[in-house]
C-alpha cells in the first residue's frame, strides 16, 4: 500500500506544467506584495496597533472584565466544538482550512484573555476612566495629549512591538468570512454527496465561529483597518503552501476540489480564490464600520466611538 501511494506522488514533470506555474504565480505574487507592504510599514516606524484596544470595551460603562469573561467563554465553547469534530473525524480535519481557521480563532480568545488579564485586573478602573479622558483630549487638541500625565499615558498606551492578538484578530475576520461563504455558498449546494453530508456538528463549525467573532467585535474597541488584508493574504498563502508541500511529499488527495492542479480549470480556480479574499475581508470591514456608524447614533451616551472612526465619519 505504501509503495502504491509512493508511486502516485507527483513527479517533477507534474510540477513543471504551465498550469502549476501559473497557479504558483497567482498566490505568490500577492504574498510578495503583502511582504513588501509589511516591510514598508515596519521600516516607517508606524505602529497604529494599540495593545489596549485589545481589552478596552467600546461601551462606556462596561468593565473590561466582562469582555475578558466573554472571551474565556468563547474559548471554552470553541475548544469543545473543535474537540467534538476531532473526536468524530480524527486529526485529519486539520488538513481543512476551516479547522485551521478555528484554531486561529481559538488563539484570538486565548491570547486576548491570558496576555492581558493581569493588566486588566490591575488597571481596569484606572484605564476605564483614562480611556474616556484620552479620547476627549485626542479629539479636541492633540497637543494636550503630550502634556498629559506620563504615568496615565504609559498605562493606557502601552505598545507592544508586535501585538500578535490584534494581528490574529484581523486575520480571523477575513478567514471566518471566507470559510463560511465558501462552505454555505459553494461546497454545500454543489458538492453534497456520499462523501460529504451536512450534519449538526459541521453546521455549527461553520456558523458558531463567525458568531463568536462578530459578538466580540460588537463589544471590543479594536479597529479593523484595510491593512489587515496583508495578514489575511499571508495566512491563506501559508495554507496553500502547506497543502502543496503535503501533495509533493506523500499525499495525493486534496481537501478541496478547487485546489486540484490537474484540472484544466486550475488557474481560474486559484485566481477566483485569490480575488475572493478582497470582498470577504471587506465584508468584515463594513461590519465594524457599521457598528460604529449605527451604534453611535442609537446609543450616543453609552457607545464610545474610536477616534479613528470619528475622524473619518
Automatic annotation (TrEMBL):
Lineage of origin: Eukaryota, Viridiplantae, Streptophyta, Embryophyta, Tracheophyta
Transmembrane segments: 18-38, 68-97, 227-256, 268-288
Name of this chain's protein: Uncharacterized protein LOC111389752 isoform X1
GO cellular component terms listed in the entry, alphabetical order: membrane
Entry keywords, A to Z: Membrane, Transmembrane, Transmembrane helix
